[in-house]
Amino acid sequence: MSTPVRVAVTGPAGQIGYALLFRIASGEMLGPDTPVVLQLLEIPPAMDALRGVAMELEDGAFPLLQDMVLTSDAEEGFRDANVVCLVGAKPRGPGQERADLLKDNGRIFTGQGEAIAKAAADDVKVAVVGNPANTNALIAANNADGVDLARFTAMVRLDENRAKSQLAKKAGVPVSEVTNLAVWGNHSPTMFPDFENARIGGKPLTEVITDRDWLEGEFLTTVQQRGKAIIDARGASSAASAANALLDHVRNWTGGEATADGDWVSMAVPSDGSYGIPEGIISGFPVTTDGEGNYEIVQGLELSDYARGRIQTSVDELQEEKAAVADML
Ligand code: NAD
Ligand code: LMR
Predict the structure, then answer these.
(1) In which residue ranges of the chain is CATH 3.90.110.10 found?
(2) Model confidence, pTM
(3) For 84-107, how does the pLDDT look when each residue is reduced to its tens digit (9 = 90+)?
(4) N or C: which end of the chain has fewer CB within 10 A?
(5) What is the CATH number of domain 157-327?
(6) Is the pLDDT of residue 1 over 80?
(7) Could you give the count of Cα atoms lying within 13 Å of 197 in the half-sphere of its Cβ?
(8) CB 227 less than 6 A from any atom of ligand 2
(9) How many beta carbons lie within 10 A of that of residue 257, not counting itself?
């Protein structure tokens, strides 16, 4: 067996953690041949619950799970970690927007950014899930001196998956037929799932779904408001689907599963100025990945004035969130 990959997860005793850890241990994040060490970082009041989760992980007798570290010390949690999943943060409740969590959650990411810089492996790759994810990732990146900015990403893959499912349902096709669907901007109600560049069964999506009113109306609103709809229905925010999207995000980035030829996936990554999105924010983009730790922003896509307007709204919101946490950057 190859050398184990060290995967650090924060908030492992929470809802997403419970839906995530067993699937990492079974190989769904890094592939069926890659052993893992799980490094689980919780806050002290949740350590008992975490011990219970760890007992269940043991009881799964997962052949790939080589070891576990349970800790409430960030440096210990991130020590030599190759993959860091920053999930631990407060979820929003009914009536809140994700940005309302900035003041409560932002502080978590200053200390964790510093600890990643001190302790993680040289090849560390960070995926932020805790909300507001894009700006929390920016905070962590800005506090991780010496770590390449490009290693800090945030998750918009859940939004991509949500969009693909809605589009597949509308077109009456299996979800795997929907490709090239990028979510631009912020993981917030301003996000833009770009249906204009998406494809269904290899054809431009807008030739298959010709109901433009539905695309600009019900479709967009459903995807943008899906997190709220789940909170309203479940009384708690999405957990299993979020864990699933995180597995997708990391597997494509560094778990051995490159994006298919001609396709792309959505990741929120530090902008390099592509498509006029300013540097200094972490925005959803279409990316291709090699599954070996590299991603590239897809270049040369045509964006209509409509798409550009939508993306600009989300970018403006990211700039506002950045200004609100200026003291943490
Ligand atoms: P939860 O409340 O069930 O669990 C959060 C866990 O994080 C708890 O166990 C808590 O003790 C732990 N935690 C808090 N502060 C911590 C810290 N400093 N270090 C380590 N652990 C810490 O919440 P959840 O449902 O698992 O959601 C976690 C976060 O993910 C929330 O912010 C939620 O809004 C967000 N989320 C994001 C997406 C996305 O698509 N980006 C989707 C769903 C949820
Ligand atoms: C989601 O999109 O489901 C999560 O970001 C949780 C939330 O607050 O909506």
Answers:
(1) 157-327
(2) 0.97
(3) 999 999 888 778 877 788 888 889
(4) N
(5) 3.90.110.10
(6) no
(7) 25
(8) yes
(9) 17
